[in-house]
Amino acid sequence: MMPNKRVFSIIFICFLLGFMIAVQLKTTQDNLKSSTQYQRIEQLSDILLRTERERDALKLEIARLKEDANLHDNFPDKINFMAGTTALKGPGVVLTIEDSKKEISSSENTNLYIIHDEDVLKVINELRAAGAEAIAINDQRLTANSEIRCAGPTISINNTRISAPYEIKAIGNAQNMENAVKMRGGVAESLSVWGIRLDVRKELNIIIPAYKGAVQFKYATPLEQ
Q: Which residue spans traverse the membrane (predicted)?
């Protein structure tokens, strides 16, 4: 009987060891499978994160390219605006300047009571300093090459003689421009000493005509970058 018991014990131990090995192998396989799945999830998460970053970068690049395209498309219009070759409209002010209507004695200098080119220049400088984007005097559009100079009893602008009263239209912030010409000690006050009137009227829709002359450059050429 002893040998049989010993054999049975050995068989039982072998069976138990086999079962334990099988369980351990299954557990190891499950752990490996779970670890592989976790690694795969991490890899997919990294790929998704990189893809989202690339997408966001592409969106920014597309937006930049669209902005560049818009700037390129609008560039000719901006050049025309700055050159004064395009009619413009917008809010602003209309100024009217008239010669003095005071009675002047024969002993007084009559030139003090009429508007001169330098008076108009002072008004224009104040308007530009206040942010005027487009200006016209008696419908003569001011450009970078426009002259404002005395021509006898008249003023020459764009080689065109104009006479008083002068109507100056300016597009921009109406309040800022009105404040600029009416400030204490400013151009309006200095003209009023001689009875020269400078009236300011705000308007919501001012039309500034285009410069009708030719824009030519005989000596200036573009600087190559």
A: none
In the block, residue with structure tokens 């499978």: 33
CA–CA distances in Å: residue 83 to residues 57, 188, 212, 222, 223: 38, 29, 11, 16, 18
In whole angstroms, what is the distance from residue 225 CA to residue 209 CA?
Answer: 34
Q: What is the pTM of this model?
A: 0.65
Report how far residue 95's alpha carbon sits from residue 212's, in angstroms, rounded to the nearest whole number: 22
Successive 10-residue mean pLDDT values, the chain, 225 residues: 56 65 62 60 68 75 70 60 81 93 77 87 93 94 89 89 93 95 91 91 94 80 76
Q: Mutual orientation of helices 174-182 and 117-129 as an angle, nearest 10°?
A: 140
C-alpha distance across the termini of the chain, in Å:
110
Same domain, 159 and 59: no
Domain with 46 in it: 1-83
Residue 188 lies in a domain: yes
Cα separation, 225 vs 223, in Å, equals 6
Which pLDDT score is estimated for 218?
80
Domain match, 76 and 105 both: no
Kindly state whether residues 157 and 98 are assigned to the same domain: yes
